Amino acid sequence: MRVTVCELPYERLEIKSMWNALCAHTRSRRSELVVLPEFAFVEPVWNREVFDHQVWDAQVKLFDHWLERLPELGAEHVIGARPSTQDGACFNEGFLWTPAAGYRPLRRKRYLPDEPGGWEARWFQRANDPFRVFQAGTLTFGLNICTELWALDSYAAYAAVPASAVVAPRATAAATIEKWLAVGRVAAVRAGAYCISSNRVHPDGSCGGVGWIIDPDGQTLALTSSESPFATVALDLSAAVAARSSYPRYVFR
């Protein structure tokens, strides 16, 4: 499966040109799956300490607009996380989009930071959705939204199911990239799966880009950067199958 990761801004002028470039990339590379950053296209509401219904509703509406543009990617599958309102409650909702079926909610974010620059617990309802495996064509995957990459127990469950990938839409700071890469490698090695992640990018460094594709042995296959904000890799899914029979996965059966 040909998978594309990216780093994307949200500011109106920047996202317009970057989106066009991403679509040109995914079409030329014949990408089958595109992973978007956490809350791609919309304002990082978690920067605001006080919840504002008008701001929230505007971001939901804006993301709905961008959903209509996902066919421009030319991909069979798109995975991301978005603002979603359900019965009056606000959630950070992971989703899978396909041209045939449209939008499909997957699971909602459970673990929410509550600190300056990350007031997510003020904006999102904490969900109790389990970490389970989903299907995108031939790819079986678990979805860990940003902070949930640190939910280390989920990787044992993915290894047992088994999953071929851990997919992680992110909004992480430039100063912390090394520790996020470290947990991405742990996710891949423990689950015996690819770890696939895209990140937001902001000029102030509050989100620092660097999307990645890491193989089941923890080797980095691709990293995005400001010079190369998109990366596409053809995944050999049989490598994930083989990994589950090798160390350290077999020890924990």
Task: State mean pLDDT (0 to 100 scale).
Answer: 97
Main sheet: strands, sense, barrel: 12 strands, mixed
Q: Any idea what the shape is?
A: globular
Q: CATH topology, which one?
A: Nitrilase/N-carbamoyl-D-aminoacid amidohydrolase
What is the rounded Rg? 17 Å
**Separation, N- and C-terminal Cα atoms:** 27 Å
Low-confidence stretches: none
Query: Got a strand count?
Result: 12
> What is the name of the CATH superfamily?
Carbon-nitrogen hydrolase
Question: What number of domains?
Answer: 1
The SSE string, one letter per element, is EHEHEEEHEEHEHEEEEH
- Going by helix content, strand content and strand pairing, the class is alpha/beta
Kindly describe this structure.
The chain has 253 residues and is of the alpha/beta class. It has a single domain, classed as Nitrilase/N-carbamoyl-D-aminoacid amidohydrolase, CATH 3.60.110.10. The chain is built from 6 helices and 12 strands. Strands 1, 2, 3, 4, 5, 6, 7, 8, 9, 10, 11 and 12 form a 12-stranded mixed beta sheet that branches. α5 links the parallel β8 and β9. The radius of gyration is 17 Å and the shape is globular. The mean pLDDT is 97.
Summarize this structure as a short list of keywords or feature phrases.
253 residues, alpha/beta, Nitrilase/N-carbamoyl-D-aminoacid amidohydrolase, 12-stranded mixed sheet, 6 helices, 12 strands, 26% helix
